[in-house]
Amino acid sequence: MPWLVLAMALICVDVTAAAADLFVVTAQPSQLSTSLDIQEIMTGRTRKWPDGTPIVVALPSKESPYFEDAGKAWFDGSASAMQRHWLRLVFSGQANVPIYTKSDEEAMAILEANPAAIVVMGIEPPPTFNVMARLN
Amino acid sequence: MSEEQYFVIGKVHTPMNFWNDTYHHGRFFFPTISRPLAFERFIPIHDIGLRWGGREIGDQKFFFDVVAGSGMSAEFEHEFFGNGVNAGTVSAGFYPTDDWLLQIGYYRDKLIDHESLPGHQAHMQMGDMVPVDLDYDLWAMSSHFENSTYKLLTEISINRTEDSDWNYSVFQYAGYKFSPDLTAYAYYDVTSVEDGGIHFVAGEESRMGVGLSYFFDASAVFKLELIDHEEDLGLSPEDGIELRA
């Protein structure tokens, strides 16, 4: 009978895994960056930090596990719409090419190399960096 | 030059209107299968010369372009200032809201030996009085609105050569996005020449269409249109109703 009690307990346990969080991270000081709308940055409408420095946008590439999540978050659920949107901006000369990252390691490397960058990662960054948003 | 300003030397797309400035030859991005009719008759797609422009100026994202060019005559021959500075383009615009762009442009050219240009059509013979070179004036206005659900594009132009009346073109597009990848749309496109002088033949050409556009991903798109094409110029064999993909 103990095995029956154990089996029933397991059935009642919620075994659903928690959805992963997505972190939008920058090296910019929080007092400068939190005033900006992330949607505006990710869609290329806001292209400069408050101090006038051009924003370097790093988006998840097709190989990244966050590619579809980024599309859902900022491009009406379509990751290919995200690519087309930036392709059109670049093609018409309205924006610079964004960087596309495959992994959290690549995103961290860009963040460390470029203080004007904004990246999307699946892990919480070191406290020296500023988390502008946390999406689930 | 800076984050806001740039300078270009060479063959450029004339910054006359939103369509030419945004889509260039990028058929993948075209809202419809074909370019507006005005590009076949009135609006030069390219010029060869010097272009100075600015973008993202101020809160309303003001932008401008100035082109000193070789003109349609030299562009046809791919000559860099073959006849000197023969054409000029000035355009400017801004964003009244984040989703809405307004733009106006002016183009002035001297059509050297106009009869040899691709846009030339039949004219009445006037013997020795027929001028070879024609002054050409073109104005264009664009309004583009796009959000996650709707896309509206209006392109209007007027033009004339020496001794002709003003001719005009109108392109109106309206699209509804069922999703970021699927859009249903309708458009009306017309060019009209009342009195074309000795360069354009008088008459009207129009296209009305309804269509569907579906993006498979970031590199492939399928468009299907039902088009009613009417023209009284006798130039196009495609007059009538057609289904085009």
Topology at a glance:
The complex is a heterodimer of chains A (136) and B (245).
Chain A: H1 2-12, E1 22-26, H2 30-33, H3 38-42, E2 56-60, H4 67-74, H5 79-91, E3 99-101, H6 104-113, E4 117-121, E5 130-135
Parallel strand pairs in A: 2-3, 2-4
Antiparallel strand pairs in A: 1-4, 1-5
Helix pairs in contact in A: 4-5
Chain B: E1 5-13, H1 18-23, H2 38-41, E2 46-57, E3 62-69, H3 71-77, E4 87-97, E5 100-111, E6 134-146, E7 150-161, E8 167-177, E9 182-193, E10 203-215, E11 221-231, E12 240-244
Antiparallel strand pairs in B: 1-2, 2-3, 3-4, 4-5, 5-6, 6-7, 7-8, 8-9, 9-10, 10-11, 11-12
Structural class of chain B: mainly beta
The count of β-strands of chain A is 5
Return the domain count of chain A: 1
The CATH topology label of chain A is D-Maltodextrin-Binding Protein, domain 2
* Helix content, binned percent of chain B: under 10%
Through-space gap between termini of chain A: 41 Å
Order of neighbouring strands in the sheet with most strands of chain A: 3-2-4-1-5
The share of residues in extended strands of chain A comes to 15-25%
Q: How much is the radius of gyration of chain A in Å?
A: 19 Å
Strand order of the largest sheet of chain B: 1-2-3-4-5-6-7-8-9-10-11-12
Query: Helix tally of chain A?
Result: 6
User: Helix count of chain B, per DSSP?
Assistant: 3
Amount of helix of chain A: 25-40%
- Helix/strand order of chain A: HEHHEHHEHEE
Write a brief caption for the model.
The complex is a heterodimer of chains A (136) and B (245). By secondary structure, chain A is of the alpha/beta class.
